[in-house]
Structures are given as C-alpha cells and as structure tokens.
User: What shape does this take?
Amino acid sequence: MIIRAFSTPVLIAFAMFFCAFSYAQKKNADYKIHLFKTSETFTIDGKGDEATWQKAEAANDFFMVLPMDDRKATQPSEVKMAYDDKRLYLLATFFKTPGNTYVVESLRRDFSFGGNDNFLLFMDPFNNQTTGFSFGANAYGAQWDGTMSNGGSIDLNWDSKWVSEVQNHEDKWVVEMAIPFKSIRYEKDVTEWGVNFSRLDLSTNEKSSWTPIPRQFPTASLAYTGTMVWDNPPPKQGLNYSLIPYVLGTVGNSSIDDITYDNEFKVGGDVKLGLTSSLNLDLTLNPDFSQVEADRQVANLTRFELFFPERRQFFLENADLFASFGYDEIRPFFSRRIGLGVPIIAGARVSGNLNRNLRLGVMDMQTEKVDETGLPSQNFAVLSLQQKVFSRSNIGLMFVNKESLDYNALADSLKTEYTKFNRNLGLEYNLASADNKYNGKVFMLKSFGPDSSYNGFAQGAHLEYRSRRWNWRAQQEYISENFTSEVGFVPRNNYIKLEGSIGHLFLPASEKVVSHGPKYRGFYYFDPSMNSTDYVSILGYELNFINRSSLGVDVFNEYVQLLAPFDPTNTGKEELAAGTRHHWNGVYLQYNSRPKSLFTYNMTTRLGRYFSGGYRTNINAQLGYRFQPYVSLGANLSYNNLDLPDPWYTTDFWLVGTEADITFTNKLFWNTLFQYNEQSNNFGINSRLQWRYAPASDLFLVFNNNEQLSPLEGNLWSLTLKFTYWFNR
Assistant: This one.
C-alpha cells in the first residue's frame, strides 16, 4: 500500500511537469497546402484531367521516414486538393522507377498497411492533434478508411460513404478521391485543418511523408501534420442524415444439446443524424451483426479471460470516447458486453465535438430478457466527456451504468445470479506533449453496486518517452478486491502492479541493417500487503533490416503464485492447488519476413520450463501467399507441447486457421476462414461473400458452421442473406 500511496502523486507530478511545457505551436504548422472552391463537375476516374487540377496547389517534395528520417524521399510524390459545395477532392500522383513492380496483397478494403504500396490521407478537422479521419488506397484501388484517436491510432472497422479510383502506369500510379462533407465531422467556420499525406513504396522499402516525421513515430501522428488552408470555410452541412436499413433471412440447424436454432426473417437498421457539423446522433433498431468478421481463435494457456476487439459498426464512430478510458486490462466500458448472446432491442448514441476542445459521448442500449436462463431485460448507459488542455492533453470523465429492469419480480434464486445494478465512475488525465515524445495517463475509478461487496476502487498511472534512439515507460496499477465492472474488461482484481520497460536503438550506416538494439520489460504483481504474487522479466535484442524484415531474441524469467486452482493445460484436467508457487525460465525467438515477397511468413517460438517443473514448447507461424491482386491465402498455425508430470503427462494440441481472401474487384469480395482448435475440440467455418453494389451499401451471403468434436459432438450451421442500403442527404 505504501507504493500505491507514493507512486500516484509522483507520476501526477511528472505529468503536470511535462504538461507545463507541452503547450507549443504544432511542429509542422508552416507546411501548408491551399484549397480553392471549384464549380467544375468531376469524374472520379483516376485520370485527373479536370481543369481544376491544373490550377490546384501541389504538396510535394516528401520526406523519408523509413528506413531513415534525415533525408528527402527518393520516390517523388505529389498531392493536390480542391472542393465544391458537397465534396472534398484529392488527386495524388506517385512516381516510381520504371521496372519496379507494384506490391499489393489484394483488393480487400482496409488493407494491411505494411503489405501494400499505398497512399494515406490523415485529416485533423478540429486541430486538436488527437482525433481525425483517414482515407487511402493501395496501388490497385482498394480503399482504406478509419477514424483517428489518441493522436495517431486508426480504427479501420469504421466505414464511410466516399468514392475513389486508381490508374496504374509504367512510371507512376494515380489515385483520385471524392469525400462527401456529410461523411466526416468538422468544426464550422474554421479555415485551417491539420493534414498530412503518407506513402509506402515496398519496391524501395521506403515510407515517406509530406511533412517531416521522426522515424520512431507513425506517419499517422497528428502532432506532425501540416495545414490545409481553405480559401473560405468549408460549406455548412445543413440537414445531414443517413438511413441504413437492412433485410435478412437466415436458415440453419443445430444438433448440439441445449442449443436450438430457428429460421428467421429480420428487418432493422440504423439512422445517422448530424445534430451539428461535428456532433452526430446514431440510432439502431433491432440490430443484426451477422456479417461481421469472425473472431480469430487463439490458444489460451493463461489464467484469465482473453480480449477480442469490437467490430460492430454501430459502436465504432468516436469509439475512443468510450473504449480508451483506463488501460487494456482496466476498462470500465467494453461494448462487447452488450448483446453477448442476448438480442439488442434498440440503442442510441450521441458523439462528437461540442466545440474545438470539448468532446461528448452518450450511449444507451436496451436488451431483451432471456426466458431460458431467466436473464432480465437490461439497460446499458454510458456518459463520456473529454476536455482538451494544453496543446494535446485532455481530462476525461466517464460514467457507466448497467441496470436490470423488473429486478424485483425475479425469483430469489435469480437475484443471486444477476445484479440489480452496477456502476462505474471515473476521472482521468491524458498527457501528450507537443512533440509527441512524452505521453502518460493518470486515472481513478470507483465502482458501485447494491451492497458493499460491489463497492471498490481502481487506479493507474504511467509515463512514457520515445526518441529516435531511446524509449522507456513506467507504469503502476491498483485494483481493490471489491472493484466490479460488469460492463468493462477487468480480468483480475485485488492486486498492485508495477511495470517498466526500456530500450535503445543503434542506427548503423549499413546496407542491410537499419537498426538494432537491446530492450527490457518487466511486469510485477503484488497483493495489497505488497507480497509478490507473480512477475515476468524479459531481456531481448532486436534487429530491423533494410528490407523491412526483423529478428528478435528474448530470454524471460517468470514466477507465479496461484491465487486460485488452475489447470495448466486449460483442457479440463486436474487443477494445481491455490497457493502453490511456480518458477521457470525460457526463450522467445521471432522472425518476420520482408512484406515485398509473394510468400510471407512470421515465426515465433517459445522454449522453456512451465508449471510444476514441466516444459512448454510453443511454435506460432503466420504464412501467406498472394496471387496479386486477386487472391491472398493465409494460414495461422499454433502448436503447443506441454510435458508435465503426473497427472497431466504430455499434452499437445494444434490451433489451425486458414483463410482464403478472393477479391474479384474492389467491390466484390469472398472471404473464407477455417479454424480448428484442438484445445477446445472445435472446428469452424465462416464464409462471407460481399458485394458493395453502391458506396457503403452491401449484399452479404454468409455461411457459418461450428462443429463440436468428441466427446461433445454436435453441429450448428446457418446461412444468412443480408441486404443493406445507405440512403443519405
């Protein structure tokens, strides 16, 4: 408790110290591109033959970011922009050495950044250097779009309505875009936005940016954007609404005990209403998420619940307002808790900017009751506020409420199983220095429930530094025994955690190695009396090659005192007793191949001791082959061998996931994922055909099959046809 009482004020003092020096002019504010309004009618075809483009100002003379950030880019790039009453237009030309081939994985939307020759646009309409929008395309025309948060994070699960086309030539490729103003949010009457342009050319292993960016930061870093200067304020959006109805039919069958499957016909949809140019109201009625990509399974040999990301469209715009509070394992709100095996009746959400410095997020969701289990109908409400301070920092407030309706009518046995209400109230301060080198956080959370057993406290703080050669981080967490977050993600409680890392990079003048250096990271857990319960210390060395491949070697030292009984195989076998102590060492080896190759592979190996004096050998591999740009094949392989004493003996199991991604055009996709998990005796298929027949409007045909293998045999399958259309004004 002494550490908890001492460390928080110290880290707060550090944060406030650095905040005092964080209010400064944006680094690249003097890099400007001027836009003028045009009355010309555009044809978005990637040709750029409109007269407007002959007069538009060009952003060119890009800077190299990788492999080295001390020079100009060797591959010339040029970007022009213009606008009219309804759309923002962009024309980008990327010159290349004749004979260099394009590198493209597929025509799949929201492509992998590192595996494609691509162009990305980053916009900061509120000039807060924290939030924004990203649009882009790869060299064969696949689109990319996402919302930006936390100064440079991009959520690609967000989709918007816009158009683009790409043309390829021997010595260049050209992308042309038209982005409706109604597809983005911005502050009215403002004539300067933050903006930057990024290019990745895998033939030369070169990443470049219009503005200079230190190599330790991504080109998405909003702290390093230039300025988009409008000749007049962007047009007012006026009445801005979208209707996104869907119709679906599903047939299926189940032979698994206790699971029935009924054919169904559903109608529902979403409504988007622009309350202002920067604040949006989202409504959903009888939502369905059958077209969402299947979760990738992982082998779980931990003692705790695993985290899977949110992919449902309704929850994604301004998702950082709701999802970024706290830490990865201290989240007061995790949207996947809503509608997890329970039908959602309806939901509403207001999110966006009230002004340049104040952001608001309000959400309310209502679920149905489940007669089979007695689960009552529940309401989920969330309030989030985020006030910008200094140049890029902010103060956040969050309130989360889960309420069971008609709770008093439940049988007494159900009242012990389900909670009447659970509430979390939190306050946090997020530090981000003007130059992006320092970031940090301090937060506090209080939980409330029907009695004192639900009333607890959680708190955390960290400070991080990143320069060209050095990086370090210090972090501290505390969660009390009674802290309860039923709508959050908190896999463990009643602990104090100290975490630290430090690394250094050498930047040699080499034709093969771009950087290399040592690194250290440690996690140390204590009970509230400061008795050690578990820790992991990792010492490693990494090499990054000029062709973008990398090699890493880590040695680790791990200790665990079990706080509850645990089966070290996680397969339902006998459990180790609570209180037993286990200590082991091991090594990690990792290699990532160069992304330019048609055949790519990433390998990770863990070798070392394990629980109860045993041994664990783990091999993970990601394999890929592309017939560009139409077919991309992939396989994820994970093998675990556990050599343990009696009563477990030797346990080994495979996790195999194979994926075929066929992109007939950049509007017609077919993706099939096969997964076999020997640990859970499960085999699954998810096959999804998507036709984007109009911008943001789709026809889906989705087949799911889930087979439980011996000893719990059975099969569950379904076939869904879903039609969505995006009406907007």
